């Protein structure tokens, strides 16, 4: 969606500039020429005056308050489903400029367990979503479907077999587990038999200014196990709410998803 962000900034700037220049330079001259007869504004000025306030409000809300995103893949199942539309808090981790994502106001930092939207270092034009597992200074390991944080294995509790729906139906039969991440227990999926898939086993030390992120669908997620740690500068915000779900293969709108918090 970076193209939309660029277009929104350009259109807001352009309409605002046209409106401002007309007010400062041309509106008074038109009034002087017209006398008692009202002279119409040029069409481009009329459109700029009408659209600039709307575009400016959308830009401010989207850049600094909350931004909508759509979940296109299964990497965060069962927490987020394919077809979920989510809202992302854009000020939780500091205010950032649109387009270049440069932080200009410090507010907070990610906590362990937060679900974050970011631009991965190897795909800087795409928005991805994962869960923060490792904080700066941590050592994170993943071996035999178990996450270790600073040498301590996380505890797991099996809930049973997962039953997928719609475009996520292929995950039916996976093991539904509760992963006891300190302070933020959450559900994850594990596929019991994946003989031809790289499980992403390894160990990583998280440097200052970086985070280690993983998807909740452990065997269907391209995450830090395969490309390393995430720089803080790539963060876009904290996901906090599902406001809509549309999956044609599940019958259309998933009303039971609307308004769900993101744990």
TrEMBL record:
It is found in: Membrane. InterPro entries: LexA/Signal_pep-like_sf, Pept_S26A_signal_pept_1, Pept_S26A_signal_pept_1_CS, Pept_S26A_signal_pept_1_Lys-AS, Pept_S26A_signal_pept_1_Ser-AS, Peptidase_S26. SUPFAM superfamilies: LexA/Signal peptidase. Keywords: Hydrolase, Membrane, Protease, Transmembrane, Transmembrane helix. PROSITE patterns: SPASE_I_1 (PS00501), SPASE_I_2 (PS00760), SPASE_I_3 (PS00761). Residues 45-243 form the Peptidase S26 domain. The chain crosses the membrane at residues 6-26, 47-65. It catalyses: Cleavage of hydrophobic, N-terminal signal or leader sequences from secreted and periplasmic proteins. It is a multi-pass membrane protein. Its EC number is 3.4.21.89. Belongs to the peptidase S26 family. This is Signal peptidase I.
């Amino acid at each position: 969606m970076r193209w939309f962000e660029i277009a929104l900034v350009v259109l807001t700037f352009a309409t605002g500039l046209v409106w401002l220049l007309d007010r400062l330079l041309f509106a008074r001259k038109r009034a002087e020429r017209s006398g008692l007869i009202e002279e119409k504004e040029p069409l481009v000025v009329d459109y700029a005056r009408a659209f600039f306030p709307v575009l400016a409000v959308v830009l401010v809300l989207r850049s600094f308050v909350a931004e909508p995103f759509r979940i296109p893949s299964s990497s965060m199942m069962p927490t987020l489903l394919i077809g979920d539309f989510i809202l992302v808090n854009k000020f939780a981790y500091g205010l950032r400029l649109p387009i270049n994502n440069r932080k200009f106001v410090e507010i907070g930092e990610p906590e362990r367990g937060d679900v974050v939207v970011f631009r991965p270092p190897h795909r800087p034009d795409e928005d991805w979503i994962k869960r923060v597992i490792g904080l700066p200074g941590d050592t994170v390991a993943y071996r035999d479907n178990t996450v270790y944080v600073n040498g301590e294995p996380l505890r797991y509790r099996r809930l049973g077999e997962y039953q997928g729906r719609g475009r996520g139906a292929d995950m039916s039969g996976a093991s539904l587990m509760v992963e006891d991440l300190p302070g933020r227990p959450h559900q994850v999926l594990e596929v019991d038999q994946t003989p031809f898939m790289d499980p992403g086993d390894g160990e990583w030390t998280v440097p200052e200014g970086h985070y280690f992120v993983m998807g909740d669908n452990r065997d269907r997620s391209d995450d830090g196990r395969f490309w390393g740690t995430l720089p803080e500068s790539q963060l876009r915000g904290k996901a906090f709410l599902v406001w809509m779900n549309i999956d044609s293969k599940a019958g259309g709108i998933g009303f039971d998803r609307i308004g769900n918090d993101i744990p």
